[in-house]
Amino acid sequence: MAMERLKGIGNQFYTLNLVPGKKVYGERLVKDANGEWREWNPFRSKLCAGLHNGLMAEHFAIHEGSNVLYLGSAEGTTVSHVSDIIGEEGLVVGVDVSPHVMSKFSALVESRENILPLLGDANQPETYASELEGMKFDVIVQDVAQKNQAEIFSKNWELFAHPKSVGYLVIKSKSVDFTKPKEQVLKQEMKALGKHIKVEQILSLEKHEKSHFLLCVRWQ
Question: Which pick of 10, 107, 145, 184 has the fewest CB atoms within 10 Å?
Answer without folding.
Answer: 10
